[in-house]
Design goal:
With 319 residues, this protein is mainly alpha-helical. It is built from 14 helices and no strands.
Length: 319
């Protein structure tokens, strides 16, 4: 409840900030169809879609991170460990610079995420999603994908590179409006499915022998969690670009607020949305009128936050 209220208040505050500053009252009136025409246009047509994009992608990244941390039994694990975000970025950049197969950047990003996961499983060669080969394969794929993105950007005209730039750092600016409802539905479905399978996913905290004794197939559980994580991350990167640290910060914040020891999926979604909206708000206001991409803001804040996690819990289990 507290997180929901916080997200609502932050969202209203975000909608009121911009070239035309609006009070919370004016924002609320515009949202319910009242107030002057200009205010309604600014709030509902120019700013609301950006806010929704931040909420949806933040929630998706965070749930994906929570699931990946469960699979890896490590609170520092994110979808980036199997190269999903970097591969999605590389495919999107390839589309923008004209190297793709004719698909839109968002579709190419989804293709990249799925390809990275499949390749990691193939290279992992039967070691499952917890084996070292799977993790190392993912890290290698992510590293190569990032290098490919930089190579492509270095070989094109500056105007084309500027067009592809948001895909390399993560940004909510000028996102395709038609993709936002899709992102909302994907996030909702991914959240519902994750909650439905939550009790089964919690068994991954135990050894494979215990899971087998309880009637579950370990690799099937891990594959299901990774598959949901891939879909959520792929769609999120397709809309906002790589903002991977939300997948780390969101679940960790959620564990602080959660009142039980199970997977804090709903809390993770809310915390991820809050982090994303706050990062976008900070990026738009700190150096106004210059806008800082949301991916840069999360990286600046997420780095010290990661160090704080390591210092605060030096002797605790990772899950």
């Amino acid at each position: 409840m507290l997180l929901s209220v916080a997200l609502l208040l932050i969202g209203i505050l975000s909608l009121g900030v911009g070239t035309l500053s609006l009070s919370p009252k004016e924002v609320v009136l515009a949202l319910i169809g009242q107030g002057d025409t200009m205010t309604q246009f600014v709030v509902n047509e120019l700013r609301l879609n950006r806010l929704l994009a931040g909420i949806y992608t933040g929630a998706a990244f965070s749930i994906a991170g929570c699931l990946m941390q469960t699979v890896a039994r490590n609170r520092l694990a994110t979808p980036g460990i199997i190269g999903i975000d970097n591969a999605a970025m590389a495919f999107a950049v390839a589309s923008v610079v004209g190297v793709g197969i004719g698909l839109a950047p968002s579709a190419m990003a989804l293709t990249g995420a799925a390809s990275a996961t499949a390749l990691a499983f193939i290279i992992g060669g039967g070691s499952g999603t917890r084996g070292y080969r799977f993790i190392v394969a993912g890290l290698a794929i992510g590293s190569v994908s990032a290098a490919v993105s930089q190579l492509l950007l270095s070989q094109v005209h500056i105007d084309t590179a500027n067009e592809a730039y948001p895909w390399t750092v993560g940004s909510l600016s000028a996102r395709p409006e038609e993709q936002i409802p899709w992102m909302g539905w994907i996030t909702l479905v991914g959240t519902v499915v994750s909650i439905f399978l939550c009790q089964r996913f919690q068994l991954m905290a135990f050894s494979d022998s215990v899971m087998t004794a309880l009637g579950r197939t370990p690799n099937r559980l891990r594959f299901s969690a990774v598959a949901i994580s891939v879909v959520l991350t792929g769609f999120a990167v397709a809309l906002a670009g790589p903002v991977g640290l939300v997948a780390l910060v969101g679940p960790e914040m959620a564990r602080t607020f959660a009142k039980h020891r199970g997977l804090p999926l709903v809390s993770s979604a809310l915390c991820g949305a809050i982090v994303m909206v706050l990062a976008d708000f900070a990026g738009r206001t700190l150096l106004s009128p210059i806008e800082i991409p949301v991916g840069v803001v999360t990286a600046v804040v997420g780095g010290p936050y990661l160090l704080w996690i390591l210092i605060r819990k030096p002797k605790r289990s990772t899950l």
